[in-house]
Structures are given as structure tokens and as C-alpha cells.
Specification:
Shape: globular
Number of strands: 10
Largest sheet: 8 strands, mixed
Strand order of the largest sheet: 3-4-5-6-7-8-10-9
Helix content: 25-40%
Structural class: alpha+beta
Order of helices and strands: EEEEHHEEEHEHEEHHH
Length: about 250
């Protein structure tokens, strides 16, 4: 990496030309092919989300009430629809978050939730997190497209760094990050205490200079010709984005 030196002979970062800090994101619908993202409304989305979240995960043993998918979020913080609505209302009331309900385009029902957090416009960085995807999203393009919509929206609004953080033991989350084109940055050891347990956190990011080629991978993966009549993909997203990690410059 070529360094720039100041008048004192010290290496400094390059100037950022033609960039202005973006505004803080306003709630708005994000439309996709398989799903849409609606700004979360507790009264509107709680019933469908509660039904979706309490379904058992067929890939996990002994998960009759759908708790397993909440393990790495510290456990599901409610046990009925009333509690679900109250929790969603609390998430919406947090001014540091922008929460979305993920809507299945086939039936119009909410099947999951995703959130922007750590939104710092003056530095041009933002994070995607608080992902609460129900079993109904598993093995469907909805999960990937929902996150693609959020990634595109952040960069369209002028953010220059998009972050993803997850428990290193939550194996599906790092895989999802890399499949979407995020780059692994390292592990923050003993980063958090979650439900009384230690959490080491894996950090991933996408930068604005990397986004155009990642976005093109997303576009080609979502194209109708990449899916058969039963909705099965011909070419995986992971295969499309894997080569990009060799192309991006190393810091």
C-alpha cells in the first residue's frame, strides 16, 4: 500500500475527495423481487412475526418453540405475541436503530427483521445487524435479497463503510457475510457479554470502492435466468463473490 506523507514526514491516510457525509437514513420501503423491507411497525407486524418466529427450525433438534435461532442474540426476549409486540415497540423507540420487517412477496407476510445500527453519518459508516430471520426464510432467496437491499440502500445514500459483526461461534453468520461479499477483518476477543456468556466478535466490512463489483454479483445472482422454475439457483452467490476476495487490495 502506497503511503502519503505530510510535511513532517509522517505517513497519513489519503485525502477523501468529492465525498460529503450522508444524511441519517429515513424510514422507507425497499422493494425487491422476492421480498420487500418495510419500516417496522409493532402493531402492524407483530402478529405475523410472532407466528414466524415461534416455528421450530427443522434443522435443529429439540427446538419445538423456535428458540434456537435467538441463541446468539442472547435468547428470545418474549414468550407470547403481547411480549413480541412490546419488544418490537421498544426496538422502534430506540433512536439509534432503524428496524425493518422483511416481507415475503408471495403472501405479504412478515417473516423476519433486520436493522441498521451504529449509524455514524459524519464518518460515513453504518452497520447491518439484529437479524432475526425465521425458519420460513431458510433455503429461500429472501434472506440474501433482504440483506442485498440494505447494502445497496446504504451505499446509494452515500455511506462509505458498511459493517457486519457476529458471534464467531454462530457459524452461519460469518458464512452469510462472506457470501454477500463482506471482507473478514478480524476477531475482537472478549468483546461482549451476552446472556452471561463470553462473546468473541468477528468483524466484517464492505467499502464503497468495493461495492460496485459486489453489487454486480448480487444483480447477476438475482436475475431470473439464474433460477429454475422451482426457484432453485443455478449458480450460487458464494461462487460469484469468492473470487472478489482475491481482487480487493489488502490493507
Amino acid at each position: 500500500m502506497t503511503h502519503i506523507y505530510n510535511d513532517y514526514g509522517q505517513p497519513v491516510g489519503p485525502d477523501i475527495d468529492c465525498w460529503q457525509p450522508p444524511s441519517k437514513l429515513d424510514p422507507e420501503c425497499l422493494e425487491g423481487r422476492f421480498c420487500r423491507l418495510e419500516p417496522l411497525e409493532a402493531a402492524r407486524h407483530s402478529e405475523a412475526l410472532w407466528l414466524a418466529w415461534r416455528e421450530p427450525d427443522p434443522e435443529i433438534d429439540n427446538d419445538a418453540e423456535g428458540h434456537a435461532r435467538w441463541t446468539y442474540l442472547g435468547g428470545r426476549p418474549f414468550d407470547d405475541e403481547t411480549g413480541c409486540r412490546a419488544w418490537l415497540a421498544g426496538m422502534n423507540a430506540d433512536q439509534d436503530l432503524l428496524c425493518y420487517a422483511v416481507i415475503d412477496s408471495t403472501d405479504g407476510q412478515a417473516v423476519g427483521m433486520a436493522t441498521y445500527l451504529n449509524i455514524v453519518p459524519e464518518e460515513g459508516r453504518i452497520e447491518i445487524g439484529h437479524l432475526s430471520f425465521s425458519p420460513r426464510m431458510a433455503r429461500t432467496p429472501i434472506s440474501s435479497e433482504a440483506l442485498m437491499l440494505m447494502m445497496a440502500h446504504a451505499f446509494d445514500k452515500g455511506y462509505r463503510r458498511l459493517e457486519w459483526k457476529c458471534d464467531v461461534l454462530n457459524a452461519p453468520s460469518p458464512r452469510a457475510a462472506e457470501r454477500l461479499g463482506f471482507r473478514f477483518e478480524g476477531v475482537f476477543r472478549q468483546h461482549r457479554v451476552v446472556a452471561g456468556r463470553n462473546r468473541d466478535t468477528a468483524w466484517f466490512s464492505v467499502l464503497d470502492v468495493e461495492w460496485p463489483v459486489i453489487h454486480e454479483c448480487h444483480r447477476r445472482w438475482l436475475a431470473p435466468e439464474n433460477f429454475d422454475a422451482a426457484g432453485r439457483q443455478y449458480r450460487s452467490l458464494a461462487s460469484m463473490t469468492a473470487a472478489l476476495r482475491h481482487d480487493f487490495p489488502q490493507s
